[in-house]
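[Q] Does anyone have a clean structure-token version of this?
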Amino acid sequence: MTTKMTAKSLKNSPDKHLMTEFPPAPDKLVTLANWRTRPSNDWSFQNVRRLLPTANIAASRQPSPLHSSPIELGHIAFEGVRSTSTTLREALHATHTHGFIVMREGRILSEWYASGMDGLTPHIVFSVSKSICGALGGILADKDLLNPDRPVTDYVPEVSSSVYGGCTVRHLLDMSVGISFVEDYLDPDGDVARYRRAVGWDVIKPGQSAMQLREFLAIQKPDGKEHGHTFHYVSTNTDLLGWVYERAAGRALADLLSDHLWKPLGAEVDAYVTLDAEGAMRAAGGICVAPRDLARFGEMIRQRGVANGRQVVPGWWIDDINDNGDPEAWARGDFAALFPGGSYRSKFYQVDRKRRTLMCVGIHGQYVYIDPPTGLVMVRMAAEALPIDLDLVHLWRRGFDAIAAHFS
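[A] Here you go.
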């Protein structure tokens, strides 16, 4: 677990023959039909740009330095799956982890990579994209380009006849829209399947709709609940938020992320975001970033929006995330049992209100863990087999907490 250590576990090694022939043999070919399943995702999550159209999110020409103070952390023990005991080293090898960074007070203490990854390899972060876009919202609000309390239709009147016709930007930010969408990743005929076709992430089969993302957003229906009452996790809310940002600022989302976040942050590697067939950007889950830049992002959030002595995200926005999440809406919502006593605000999970510990979470095992009392920021990128494996979600929450406890 010292810095730059590379995994050798057979469990965590990719099939080195995936996509290496010209053309690849059928059993070594990664396509839209299999890119989110194992073993294809070992390759695809690091090569999204070779499968889907994308827009660039340019990094800084003068990246901020990252200093290392390597220490051994692999021995840290915590509860594994089904009440077994594990260590950080064992868990990394056993759970299809691609990259793992532990940073304290801005210095990298430990860095671990597998499956061809390194600290500068862009990797899809799925719904961690939402938190990145949530941070951008604070910047736009501080510049008076965005008012979270205004109706969504003030920015995007095209959705006035949908469920979004009656909600505010704040409802999008806090996942409290009363929408009937069911976020079931495994239902082959459900809302998510139709949504993925709209964003260009799945093959469109004969007889299936070829609707594009913005058109899909404009037909979403209400579930009868009052906006703001319940935390209801729906990815389309964040895609609409990205569209709101574009209208509010008059610029493409990728350019806004670059100029207002990635460059001021001192990011080292260009990030990118996936596009549908009409160029709509998938704010909810299509951003691909390098592990070290994601660590820079987490450190900036820990520092109340400051990076390299510069206020990137306004401090009041970070305070609002920590202080103004609605615990009652959370308790009524989808993930109440996952993070008891938590809340959700501006696309960040508040998982320990007393410690002000924040998390960013993406399917297939993507995490940023920000713990101010210990000065820790931890990043994990992975290619887990299931979109949500509850055993692994709990395992990694215990793992992050154990590392934090080690430094307490």
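[Q] Thanks! Anything notable?
[A] Residues 1-12 have pLDDT under 50 and may be disordered.
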